[in-house]
Amino acid sequence: MIYIGIDLGTSAVKLLAMDEKGVIRKIVTKEYPLYFPRPGWSQQNPADWYNQAIDGLKELLTGIPASEVAGIGAGGQMHGLVVLDKHDEVVRPAILWNDGRAGKQTVFLNKTIGKEKIACCTANIAFAGFTAPKILWLKENEPDNFQRVEKVMLPKDYITYKLSGSFCTDYSDASGTLLLDVEHKCWSQEMLEICGIRREQLPDLYESYEAVGVLRPELAEMLGLPPGIKIVAGAGDNAAAAVGTGTVGEGHCNISLGTSGTVFISSKNFRVDSHHALHAFGHADGHYHLMGCMLSAASCNKWWMEEILGTGNYAGEQAGISALGENQVFFLPYLMGERSPHNDPSARAMFIGMSMDTARRDMTQAVMEGVIFGLRDSVEVARGLGIEIARTKICGGGAKSPLWKKIAANILNMDIEVAETEEGPGYGGAILAAVGCGEFQSVECAAEKLVKIVDIVKPEPELVKKYEEKYEKFKKYYPAVKSLFP
User: Fold this and answer.
1) pLDDT per residue over 282-338, tens digit each?
2) For residues 102 and 105, what is the distance between their CA atoms, to the nearest angstrom?
3) CA distance 234 to 308
4) Are 70 and 1 in contact (CB under 8 A)?
5) For the segment 407-424, what is each residue's pLDDT rounded down to a tens digit?
6) Can you tell me the distance from the alpha carbon of 186 to that of 121, in angstroms, rounded to the nearest whole number?
7) pLDDT tens, 63-99?
8) Residue 90 CB neighbours (<10 A)
């Protein structure tokens, strides 16, 4: 059978067809625009997501026997606010995960309502990128739009709704709204009252692998597919990526080097970081996870390469980098503010330590190192909780760089395990669809059978020592410049 995974990213939707053995038959990518109407704002048109997803499905299905397609699952960018009116029309452009406009509302939740109260309701504190502060922003700044809202949903759930008619979400994605009682897996009535919304405006909750409906008959006919194709709830992109790398069950780690960067630690039991530097979320395997998230990861490298250097030759720029652990230039990777562990939407990126002999390759290296130093901040928080992390899987666009994986292994001082398939959320979405269709007994069983490790990048003791000294310096830079940010 064939299972389709949809990865609804920030810059494009990627669709893949996977068979029951985990072999990817075909991949299609469709891009769409991202809008920055004001500094710190980030928006998209949900119609762009859907139109490109449908076009992508048409292309994906070319050459694939329609009778073999059994299910569809989506992984998608988290935290985005998508609101529909009573006619199921989009009320306003979606406010995305990396949008920083809700700083005032975040302060209101954390200071006026109080972090302890918010954490008691949800297991997390407010971050500007989360959905609840965006709802408060909408209520305060666009009251007419707020009054029109009948449905509040997340980006990938808009696609699921359009495909199946099911108004639903899953626990992993819902965890990032700051509206979910994560431990007890239900919407928090207290948070709904704080945000001024009703339970019926929120979607029904499912495990990520549960079937929520079938493909709408008119879409099945248009796509040339048989009736009854199951649609599963899917997952937030990081949870879906973790499934795609086999990071399920107890005590496993996955690092994502995508547009954003994450350190994802799976757990069978609910747990929280008392300092709330790490998020406590539900996982797509039916259990839980801790996650540290930095807002700009591979996007830092993309910005440096394409906007500053004006080149798309990533491999060529990295080819001249050899003096690992000896670079005197540092980069703070806060292009869109930062979430974990600083929770500072006003933070900004900067280079530190340049001199007359600083070369282009030094700055390229500094960008790559700065991202991994930022991820290590979250790793250190996890280690402070007594979580032993000796190895990690890796995924995302940045994971295709051998140099970046080597830098990561030595800055983090852990084995970097490379899976045979590095398609992250799309692959995870397809696996969830396979579980929902009964191909596998559980997500853990599916991951065990389908995910194969083909390479391990090990840390080198001398480099680890050098990077340890560099990280001690890196840790001092953000506190030193924090007061300079607007």
Assistant:
1) 999 999 999 999 999 999 999 999 999 999 999 999 998 989 999 999 999 999 889
2) 5
3) 37
4) yes
5) 999 999 999 999 988 788
6) 10
7) 999 999 999 999 999 999 999 999 999 999 999 998 9
8) 16
Cβ(36)–Cβ(42) below 8 Å: yes
Secondary structure string (H, E, C) spanning the chain: CEEEEEEECCCEEEEEEEECCCCEEEEEEEECCCECCCCCCCEECHHHHHHHHHHHHHHHHCCCCHHHEEEEEEEECCCCEEEECCCCCECCCEECCCCCCCHHHHHHHHHHHHHHHHHHHHCCCCCCCCHHHHHHHHHHHCHHHHHHCCEEECHHHHHHHHHHCCCEEEHHHHHCCCCEECCCCEECHHHHHHHCCCHHHCCEEECCCCEEEECCHHHHHHHCCCCCCEEECCEEHHHHHHHHCCCCCCCCEEEEECCCEEEEEEECCCCCCCCCCCEEEECCCCCEEEEEEECCCHHHHHHHHHHHCCCCCHHHHHHCCCCCCCCCCEEECCECEECCCCCECCCCCEEECCCCCCCHHHHHHHHHHHHHHHHHHHHHHHHHCCCCCCEEEEECHHHHCHHHHHHHHHHHCCEEEEECCCCHHHHHHHHHHHHHCCCCCCHHHHHHHHCCEEEEECCCHHHHHHHHHHHHHHHHHHHHHHHHCC
Q: CA 152, 158, 161, 166 torsion: positive or negative?
A: negative
Q: Can 237 be counted among the known catalytic residues?
A: yes
Asked if residues 308 and 314 have their Cβ atoms less than 8 Å apart, the reply is no
Gap between the Cα atoms of 411 and 334, Å rounded: 19
Separation CA 80–CA 459 (nearest Å): 37
359-388 pLDDT, tens digit each: 999 999 999 999 999 999 999 999 988 888
Which residue matches tokens 């305060």? Answer: 140
- Size of the chain in residues: 486
With a cut of 90, say whether residue 339 has pLDDT above it: no
Cα–Cα distance measured from residue 40 to residue 42, given in angstroms and rounded to the nearest whole number: 7
pLDDT band at 428 (very low <50, low <70, confident <90, very high): very high
Tell me how far apart the alpha carbons of residues 290 and 80 are, in angstroms, rounded to a whole number. Answer: 20
Amino acid occupying residue 430:
A
Q: Which of 99, 170, 173, 237 is catalytic?
A: 237
Looking from the CA of 437 toward its CB, the CA atoms found within 13 Å total 24
Q: Which of 219, 267, 478 is CA-nearest to residue 388?
A: 267
